[in-house]
Specification:
The structure is a single chain. This protein is α+β, with helices and mostly antiparallel strands. It is about 25% helix and about 30% strand. The strands form two sheets. Strands 1, 4, 5, 6, 7, 8, 9 and 10 form an eight-stranded antiparallel β-sheet that branches. A five-stranded antiparallel β-sheet has the order 11-2-3-12-13. The protein is globular, with a radius of gyration of 23 Å.
Amino acid sequence: MNHFPQAWGRPRDDIYGAYDASYLHTNGPKTHTQSPIVTGTSVIAVKFKEGVVIAADNLASYGSLARFTDVKRLRPFNQKSIIGISGDVSDMQYIDRLLNSLAITESHAAEEGHVFSAQNLHTYLSKVMYKRRSDINPLWNQILVAGLDGDEQPFLASVDLLGTTFSSPTLATGFGAHLAQPLLRKVVPSEEDVKSVDRQTAIEAVKECMKVLFYRDARSMDRYSIAVVTKEAGVELKEDEQLQGQSWAFAEQIRGYGTQVA
């Protein structure tokens, strides 16, 4: 028996020959994360006439396992902006450290009257994501930035792992882009319709979308965080909300896959 701990579990050298560890080494190029392991799913957001509502569930999945059930993916930056992050959780934590550092810097600038708006924050994050993409070491996330712009108007925009940016009155990441967006667009079809949507209507629409995502997305859960950003109250964040009024009655009529019904 080979008594050296580093050799335990290996065939004996005196019988089978020296252990070949060459397969453990590679002469290829340096590589980075290609497939995130611990991930968060959808983030959804919608504008209304006085601000923005944004929500994300509290689940971080280890592959297909619902492993971490208390991961907060909404991160307030100041009283004018908040971000929601989907994708790799370790990269989300890296972004959080960047924003902590930025917040300290901006706290000194705020004393001189400078205000860091949601639009400024979105520009900063787009530069960070594009720089990492250009280094061929992207942050595997899609981020929604919600809040108020420099004119105190509702602001909502997205940036993904390639540094691609766009804005819309309703936005969603992950499965939400397929399941929640059609529902949100019924409430706010265009930018002009934002002025006709009140706070309560926007909140109810987001809560209904979170319920649909819990029904249909295997990587979601029924506990979520929701935030409302307005000029008067700033960022109002609730981090441990529970879905209400769930009904699985529709499942009784589903047979097989697709649109088959009993």
